[in-house]
Amino acid sequence: MIAIQLPYPPKELSPNSRTHWAKKSKAMRESKLLATAEMTTEMMELPRERKEIVGTKHDLRLCVVFHPARKGRYDRDNALARCKGYIDGIAVALDIDDTQFEPIILRRGDVVKGGIVEFEIYP
């Protein structure tokens, strides 16, 4: 398993936000770059056995755990949509197509100050 933690995605990436396209595009670009950098760093620290995931042609199971900044209800579908840039960035770092994340499992985690999203990838 490979796991990384990223900050909760910005509200501009929510499908329900009323955000100018340029601001949304900038937020998407930044989230993709952050995820690519974090996953690349994680891959450099992994033992050789775990690096076999890179460039694989098989489907990988992706588990996404949302740790919001505050209590309250939230729609997991919208939370996943906010993570599109993160998922794209992770796929770039792993040298795979993001369609290879099958299945994608969504979970609710505990409240964490500032909010985070955990991504766990299983072969």
The percentage helix is 25-40%
Q: Could you give the distance between the termini?
A: 7 Å
Number of strands: 4
**Pairing-aware structural class of the strands and helices?**
alpha+beta
Residue-averaged pLDDT: 89
Largest sheet: number of strands, sense, barrel closure: 4 strands, mixed
**Beta-strand fraction estimate:** 15-25%
Shape summary: globular
- As laid out across the biggest beta sheet, the strand order is 1-4-2-3
What is the gyration radius calculated from CA atoms?
Answer: 14 Å
How many helical elements?
3
Would you kindly provide a written description of the structure presented here, covering whatever features stand out?
This protein is of the alpha+beta class and 123 residues long. Helices cover 35% and strands 24% of the residues. The chain has three helices and four strands; from the N terminus they run βαβααββ. The chain has helices at 21-45, 76-82, 84-94; strands at 2-7, 60-67, 101-108, 116-122. Strands 1-4-2-3 form a four-stranded mixed beta sheet, with helices on one face. α1 packs parallel to α3 (84-94). The longest helix has 25 residues, at 21-45.
Topology:
Layout: E1 2-7, H1 21-45, E2 60-67, H2 76-82, H3 84-94, E3 101-108, E4 116-122
Helix pairs in contact: 1-3
Summary, kept brief:
The protein contains three helices and four strands, in the order E-H-E-H-H-E-E. It is α+β, with helices and mostly antiparallel strands.
